[in-house]
Structures are given as structure tokens and as C-alpha cells.
Amino acid sequence: xxxxDLPSTWVLARRASRxxxxxxxxxxxxxxxPGVISxxxxxxxxxxxxxxxxxxxxxxxxxxxxxxxLQYAASEGFPALRQQVAAGLxxxxxxxxxxITTGSQQGLDLVAKVLVDAGSRVxxxxxxxxxxxxxxxPMEPEILxxxxxxxxxxxxxxRAKAEGARFLYLLPNFQNPTGRSMSEARRAALAxxxxxxxxxxxEDNPYGELWFDRAPPPPLSARHxxxxxxxxxxxxxxxxxxxxxxxxxxxxxxxxLLQAKQAAxxxxxxxxxxxxxxxxxxxFLQRHVPRIRALYRSQRDAMxxxxxxxxxxxxxxxxVPDGGMFLWARLPHGLDALELLPRAVEAGVxxxxxxxxxxxxxxxxxxxxxxxLSFVTASVAEIDRxxxxxxxxxxxxxx
Amino acid sequence: xxxxDLPSTWVLARRASRxxxxxxxxxxxxxxxPGVISxxxxxxxxxxxxxxxxxxxxxxxxxxxxxxxLQYAASEGFPALRQQVAAGLxxxxxxxxxxITTGSQQGLDLVAKVLVDAGSRVxxxxxxxxxxxxxxxPMEPEILxxxxxxxxxxxxxxRAKAEGARFLYLLPNFQNPTGRSMSEARRAALAxxxxxxxxxxxEDNPYGELWFDRAPPPPLSARHxxxxxxxxxxxxxxxxxxxxxxxxxxxxxxxxLLQAKQAAxxxxxxxxxxxxxxxxxxxFLQRHVPRIRALYRSQRDAMxxxxxxxxxxxxxxxxVPDGGMFLWARLPHGLDALELLPRAVEAGVxxxxxxxxxxxxxxxxxxxxxxxLSFVTASVAEIDRxxxxxxxxxxxxxx
Lengths: 399, 399
Known about the structure:
The structure is a homodimer.
Chain A: H1 23-31, E1 37-38, H2 51-70, H3 79-88, E2 98-101, H4 103-115, E3 121-125, H5 130-136, E4 142-146, E5 148-149, E6 152-153, H6 155-161, E7 165-170, H7 184-197, E8 201-204, H8 220-223, E9 228-233, E10 245-248, H9 254-265, H10 270-280, H11 284-310, E11 317-318, E12 326-330, H12 337-346, E13 349-350, E14 352-353, H13 365-368, E15 370-374, H14 380-398
Parallel strand pairs in A: 1-13, 3-4, 3-7, 7-8, 8-9
Antiparallel strand pairs in A: 2-10, 5-6, 9-10, 11-12, 12-15, 14-15
């Protein structure tokens, strides 16, 4: 018998059973039909990408420093960029605590590798960022959702679930998926409780700069730096296509995260790091980010106005985020967002059902009523038409 | 008591104990003293980086396709680049089998996540690429070195150790660290044995294009595509600083690798992928890669000539690689490469001791005699001086 006729024996690791296509991603495929107004994506508005600044920076980096920019480089990251990151944070951070990552998604992967054993308890908000659930899953944690309100985790439930947890993962600013933020008072109380419980916090802050009226309160990491690991991103203030983020780690944790980084991809692209550092040199962000804020604020306002106008009497509830990219809504009793989606797409509008963002609650009827609406990808005219179409679908479904 | 006075409880995952600073990296720090001629690094020659082509490609990508290049993108990779990869391989590959990775190092991380459980047996060459040992380590395999000769793994020892192994990892072309390659006959016999044993092969081929006299025989993946997972890199034919590599997976494995990729960093930078695709469009590589081959060949020849000239009578043995970047040498009996290194650096020349490249043999006296010499970073004049200095150190140590 020809040995090639035998099937090969690829044995999958146990963790592979927890790696499954993102429900969101499958949903997004449906929503990508031409003509559909999408509130479903998590994409920043490409009109905010500083294409010209990148073109100038790219030309300059290659001209002045081409061979170095294209060579292998240190796993820690490009020194000038690490310094810019440290200097831009609102608490004292040594550049040696900064690790440049291949997007902040990689920060989540490294955190899980260094801190999570199979069966380790990890606490998350309810609901939480789906990409974090996916990044943690390969390390086979027991992920527990902490009961959360309009500000994030509730401290009584956190206390009840903290025993033995490796860390609490949260996004205090304009959270994905809900758009909610934690107040100063909640942050202060949470930081104190975490310190008392000796519960480490992994603080993810991709959206913090995208505030509309006032800057959010200081991060938890600023209050309790030795107890927090901070993740940041350039994806929302510059552009996601460079795949650049960073983490700030307590000095005791940094070496293991660095080893994990080195094993994962040696280093993030040095060319991209130099471009980002070049673009951000001087006061670029002080001029650029306010424009993103103003744009996203106008789009949020358009969506809120459209919701007020179109959803009157339909029983849809929604929040009013103070920044970021997302608004969170709840359908009337008896409706299920996942079931509603195909009808919405049929009517020319798409959203993301909320249930996949719940760590352990996708069977929860409350979760099944929720949905996420991005207000930053569609134009104001599209927002008006899309919300009207969604209202018609809900009206029909409840009628 | 102020709760912040309590130390925080960061509990490390068990795997973190296997993440340790690379011995090589620590060694390289010593060798980075100014004035030291280094044969230690694994860096391609920056004179081969097509800086002007990248500058033109970058300008064009940003001008013609800026917002898309800077936006989030598909985890699979940029379609045109996947097509170029598939078309450039010497066996029939569907672009849907190609996953663009953040350097081929990330391919190793994804492979380990999807195929390795704690305690899983993984087979490697003796010695093997240190970065692979580091990428596999977090998944806590039992790594076994297969006895190897001047062509790579020996089939009798492979048969003896294959039981239950998740895969055999190898670099058939101009291997790192040894520079050795597998003959046509060994490849044919190995592919047949692997098929008979139903042993999957992870074939890593970063150096295959860097041949000097004739192209190496076809990859194992070409002979046995369903039983092989193939890893490739743009780091040696374009530049490492873009962090772009790829893997080619059997269709049955692809979805899990894609999930692992998505969880790890969402996708590799779309801007970089477009730049690479733009640079490689047309016949660029057909013109560019022969220049790299000619340069590296002249440097290899210079190192071989210097070794013949300077090492006469010293008992140093070395091989004659047909391509790639490295040459492998063995010190006379009684010498230890790690012990010799500080004296060499003192004398102005650096190399990498071979022992860290042995999966389970760093205590092996044979391993301790070995060292790796890169011939591509230093100029011909530096090669002459560096080899002379190394000969003086060996002469003194044996005298």
C-alpha cells in the first residue's frame, strides 16, 4: 500500500476546541451585502486616518533610517515610541515598563500566556470585549462575568467572585460593546477593593482618548500601578492598519511578558513603529484627536436624534455614551436580537447582537435582547436612514 | 492599614517558568560592544534591503489605497499577497490555504497553540532553530531531539521516537543554526517514512531562496501536502522589519490556525502586506534575489578561505553550506564554545555557542564544542580580520 494513501494524523491540542469562528465575524459577513447600512462593524472611520502624515513619515523614515527600519529589532519596541507612550500617560511610567505590541489584541494574548493556566479563574465585565474572550480562550481559563451596571462591574459581586482569580479584565472608558464608562467614584472604590483583595487588574483602554465633553477620570493604573497591567492602542487615534499597541507592566511582570512577546513574533514591525513615532512627534495628536472627537460626537448625536425620532413608542432602550464608537440598546421584551438580524439586513440595516459579548450569559434572555450599534462608520444621512429602517423592523416584529 | 501597602498578587501561569531570556540574546548583548566583529547575529545584510522599492511602494499604496491600507482587515491576509505566495510555491497551493503571519515566528506560535498540549511530544532536529524552541515552550511540550547528521534527521532515530509525537519540526534548507540541507534522497525517504508513520511535519523554510549554486530539492510539503504544514518568510528576500511571513496549511487545519491568528493579533499589518505585494508584483524577486545570493555566496567564500588560511592545524572543523546565512563549526576536543566566547569578544570577534540550539543536549560535550558563524553581516575585510582573531584565541586556548 502506498503510505500516502493513509490519512495524516493531525491531532489538535485540547485548547483548539475553544477556538471557534467568532459569531460576530460570521454575522458581519451577512451584513457586508452591498446596500446594507452597517452599524455592526467595530471599525474607526477611515476619514480620520492621517494618510498624508503617514505618507510623509514613511518617506522620511525610509530616507533617513531605511536599513534600520527594515532590519530585525528589539522585542521591547522602538525606544522613541516607548518614550512617547510613557510620556503621554497620566501617571509616572518608566519607558522600560512599556512593551510595544502588534495591536493591543496581542497584549491580551501575552497577558493570557503569562497569567492564565488551564482552569484559572479570570473575571470580566458583563458584557465584555469579545476579542478578549477570544484571546484568553486558548489558555483555557474559567471566565466568569461580574455583574455590571451602567458604570461597569458591581463591587459586591466582584468581592464574591474574586477568590483565586488571576485578574479582572475591564475597559473603564467607552467600553466595547456598551459604550459605558466608570465614574470617578466607582474607579476609586474599585481600585481600593482590588488592592484589598490583592486582585490584579488588566485595564484595557483603546477608546479613552475619544471623549466628547470631558476627559474621563484617570485610569485605575494611575491609582494602583503595581496592581494593574495597562493596555493601549494606536488603532483609534492613528489607524488600525499599522497594528500597533502597547502594554505597561509592573516591573516584576515585564520580563515574562517580554519573553512571551519574543516567542510570539520577535518584535512588532520597526518600520511601523518609526512611522508612528514620526507622525506623533510634536503636537500632532493634540491637533488630530480633537477632530476625531468632533466627528464621532456629531455621529453619536445624529444617532441619538434618529433613535428619539424613529423609536418613539417602540420600547427600545438605549444609553448615551460620552465617547468612543458604540451605543448599546435593548429590544422590547420578547424580541431576540439574533433572530431580528436577518430581517434587519433584509430591510437594509445591520447591527451586532449583544449575546456573544457575555462571557457566560448567551442563554440569558436579557442578553439576547441586547445589541450594539456603532455610530462612527456610517454617515449622518445613513444613520438617519438606517435607524428608520431598524425602527420599521422592530415595529413589524412587535406588531 | 492602607490596602495599597499590600503587595499585589500576580500569580504567574505555570508555563511562564519555561519563558526565560534567550541565552543567545544575552550573549548578543555582550557581543554588541563597539569594535567587535560579529559573526553572532542572525540578521540579513541590510545592504540587501530594497529601500527605494519600499519607498515607491509605500507612497503608491498610501496614495491609491490609503484608507483601506490603514483600516482593520481580514485575519487571513491581503488577497493579492496570498495569491502571490500560492503562485510562487513549487506545488499546487490554493490561496485559501495561505495565512499571512506577523513574521514566520508567529507561524510557530500558532502551530504550537493549535497542535501542542502540555506534555505533547514534539520532535526537532539536533540542533534546531532556537526561536522554534522558544515559540513551542509556552505550550509546554516534551521536546525531543532526533539524532541528526550533515543532512538533518536520521530516519532510524525518527522511527524510534515518532510514537505519539504531534509533529516533526524541521528546516530542510540551509538550516539555522547549522547551514546544512537535506538531499533529494533523504527528503524522499523522510516523506515516505512520515506518511507511513502518519507523523505530521512542520516544514520551516526561511532560507530556501538563498541558494548559491543550485536550487534545493523540492520541499517535503510538495511531496506530501496533506501531511505537512509549511512556514515561509519575507524576512530574507525582502526585509525582516515588515514582520511578514506566511503559513500554508492543509485545508482541514486551516480554520483553527485562522482562529488562533485572529485571537493573537487580529491580522498582520495591511499596510505592510500591500507594500510587500506591490514590491513583489512583476519580476522584482527574480531580479532581486540573485543579488542577495551572489553577495552571500561571496561572503561565504571569504569565510571559507579565511578559515582554511587561519585555522590550519588548529583542529577546528566546519561545514560548507550551499546557501543561507550560517556556517557550523566544531572546536577541538576539550574546548567549550561558551567558555571561549568572552575571550573571543576580548579579542574583538563574536560567535554564537551552539549548545542552546540543542533541545535536550546542552550538557552534551559534543554540543558544547559547537558554534554558529554568520557570514552575511560582516564585510569581507571584517571576515578576514575576525576569523584571524578567532584563530588566535583558539590557538591560545589549545596551546
